[in-house]
Design brief:
The complex is a heterotrimer of chains A (256), B (295) and C (285).
Chain A (H helix, E strand, L loop, with lengths): L8 E12 L2 E12 L3 E5 L6 H7 L10 E9 L2 E2 L7 H7 E4 L10 H11 L4 H14 L3 H4 L12 H13 L5 E5 L7 H14 L4 E5 L3 H7 L2 E6 L2 E7 H6 L4 H7 L5
Parallel strand pairs in A: 3-8, 3-9, 6-7, 7-8
Antiparallel strand pairs in A: 1-2, 1-4, 4-5, 9-10
Chain B lengths: L1 H37 L1 H4 L2 H6 L3 E2 L6 E2 L2 H32 L2 H16 L2 H20 L7 H25 L3 H9 L4 H12 L1 H17 L2 H6 L20 H8 L8 H30 L5
Antiparallel strand pairs in B: 1-2
Helix pairs in contact in B: 1-13, 4-7, 4-10, 5-7, 6-7, 7-10, 8-9, 10-13, 12-13
Chain C lengths: L2 H36 L5 H5 L2 E2 L4 E2 L2 H32 L4 H15 L2 H15 L6 H25 L3 H9 L4 H30 L2 H6 L19 H10 L8 H33 L2
Antiparallel strand pairs in C: 1-2
Classes of the chains: A alpha/beta (256), B mainly alpha (295), C mainly alpha (285).
The structure holds adenosine-5'-diphosphate and magnesium ion.
Amino acid sequence: MTDDFANGTEIEVRGLNLWYGTNHALHDISIDIPKNSVTAFIGPSGCGKSTFLRCLNRMNDLIPNCRIEGNVNINGEDIYSKGVDVVDLRKKVGMVFQKPNPFPMSIHDNVAYGPRIHGAPRKEIEGIVEYALRSGALWDEVSGRLNTSALDLSGGQQQRLCIARTLAVKPEVILFDEPCSALDPISTSKIEDLILELKKQYTIVIVTHNMQQAARISDYTAFFLLGDLIEFGRTEQIFESPQRKETEDYITGRFG
Amino acid sequence: MFKRNEMEKGVESLLFISAVAAVLALFLLCLFLFRDGILLFKDYPLTGFLTEKSWYPTSLDPRFGLQPLLFGSILVTVGAIFFAVPLGIAAAIYISELASPRVAGILKPLTEILAGIPSVVFGFFGLVVLVPVIQEALDLSTGQTALTGSVMLGVMALPTIISISEDAISSVPRSIKEGSLALGSTRWQTIHKVTVPAALSGISAAVMLGIGRAIGETMTVMMVTGNTAIIPGFPSGLFEPVRTMTATIALEMGEVPQGSEHFHALFAVGSVLFITTFIINIAAGHIKNRYRFRL
Amino acid sequence: MLPNAKINEKIAFTLLRMAMGLVVLFVFIILYYIISNGYSVISLEFLTSMPAKRMTAGGIYPAIVGTIYLIIGSMAVALPLGILAAIYLNEYARPGKVTWTIEMAISNLAGTPSVVFGLFGLAMFVKYMGFGPSLLAASLTLALLILPVIIRASQEALITVPKEYREASLALGVTKWQTIYRVVLPSAIPGMVTGAVLSVGRVAGETAPILLTGAAYFLPRLPDSVFSQFMALPYHLFVLATAGTNIAQTRPIQYGTALILLIIVLGVNAFAIAIRNHYRKKMHR
Ligand SMILES: Nc1ncnc2c1ncn2[C@@H]1O[C@H](COP(=O)(O)OP(=O)(O)O)[C@@H](O)[C@H]1O
Ligand SMILES: [Mg+2]
């Protein structure tokens, strides 16, 4: 896999294997993920998409007896090498989860949470909050009630708040794990628009079980099956002329 | 950066030390309890402690026989369990299987009130209410009997037995109950042939913990059982005054010179009590974990 | 269906109902008896004056003060220790021998009779450390007694904090401790407070441990240092109800003391439940 990507390569994965106890969940994955583009992971549920995504910011470290081998280089640095500070890594590689998970705090404090902890000067916080909420396409809806509870927002708004919260930390990469699976179609399309907007500044990786979504928003698509990376390429190519039989079966709906 | 990691490590160490404090506390408790208990056997034979039939701590030729106290504790506890186990399990079944959610929501806190009442208040109630009632009803020379203690301890063990059994019974999966009902069993047949057996391990643990609670209870028994240290008969002993291990410690510790033989004898009794409840706790935990109902 | 089965069910259900009724009856009889006999005794004077005429008259002020001191002293030790231990067990501990040992120690402390704690306090704090029979010795003894209660309650509170909050915070590049401090603890505090308040009730009602570690039969003045002996409500009730020659004469004071104890303990329990429900509603809005 050479990088013929327009904006260069952000993440290089080489020979990644992962075990949950004795369950060998990812088999020898190698992939390059391009900068400032949207890369989608598709595949039937249980094939290891989330697991792989969580390898990219080491969220799997939290799972007891999860073992990982192989290399993941982000901007040339191996994130699994010894001296790496996981906390710094996660500042650079943000994550938005399947279920919106705002903290039980005000809208403002949710967004300010990260910058505050990372020591942003007090007078900059308001600016960061506004910037993040604007970038998260939520500002117009909530600017008048920043101090109300985040839990009062609708599901779609909560998810955009979670995106804004991630943006406030100024990451380089944002990982999305099925961010729309708990949302209605209108909220979904708002988030899709947002992702297309964000890719100008950020490298985006999104897990989705929805092939139309992958086709709509992604530049590159990777197809996973039972812990293997079956095929990776430009999204049009994957959907229009898949090289592998399994990929074709999946996108034509023959299984999964 | 470096400082941040140091901070994280420091916090974790502090938390770890706090958690280990519980182990340290248990260790020190054993150490001090057993140390003062074992000192008894410097002058007084262990065999005497175990086989002697009488507890005369203050006579010229003192006797420190454990048996009257041990059997006293056992008698009162057995009486309490006979009374509290059927009642407690029945109440637990009622709450989880018969009562509507609203009624159950009232009954549960109501039984928890029993758990909150201090033992000295139970003792006081037993002394002023139950003692005269038992004396008159059974025409005894005193109402301060093992039976009185059993009834009070039974009431006190009820909340433990009810709440843990109730947990166990309500965690039996609905599908299992429905399976039985669908075969044409009555609700009662389902309860006693399917639900209760499925919850048996939790119920057994509840009974064990109820026993632990009863055997370790001090103030109530001290106030209502008359505190006579003679080996009780069975069942006649139920209607006579009796002396438990706990009551002995609480009653006599105030008057003994520290470091005397009698002082150490009370620690030896305390050690026996501790070992007994320790075994009961381990057994209860074991039953609960080993046979926990798995979905 | 066999008519027999129907009849059996009727009988069984009737018995279950009677059992439940009996349990409820116990609760009401005890409460009714203490309240109906005690309420006429209680007055502001009863609460705020010293005992008089060899405790056959006057109030229970020193016993109330002693009980409050015990609550403050034991909570000051057990609350921080218990919460920190619970955080370790829930957030940091990995399954293994060490964790197993800690858990086992906590369960066994929880099941150890209070009179055994009294013996321990006597041997270690009163004798070995030389505190003498004192507020300090009794408070430390009670602190160990309620430590497992506080740990268990705090653990339960921590378990109910959704895993998602922790993940969200960690994914923002926030450290583990900061995550716990800023996100997990604020959500867990109501539950922890509930546990703490419940153990206040326990401290207020325990008699056997303080009997061995410093409670006094009667003191003409309030304790003036942590090394003083003290009076306390439960011991006061015990003494008046069982010892001395004036048991019948002091009966009203006994009822009054019992009712005050009951009010403290049940009031504290009700308060704890109210806190829990209040925050539960707030969280699930
Ligand atoms: N925390 C975990 N512990 C053990 N096994 C897990 C865990 N998470 C996922 N798995 C297993 O790893 C495999 C891949 O799961 P996942 O990555 O969640 O799939 P996907 O996101 O593609 O649906 C599945 O077989 C699943 O059972
Ligand atoms: Mg997934």
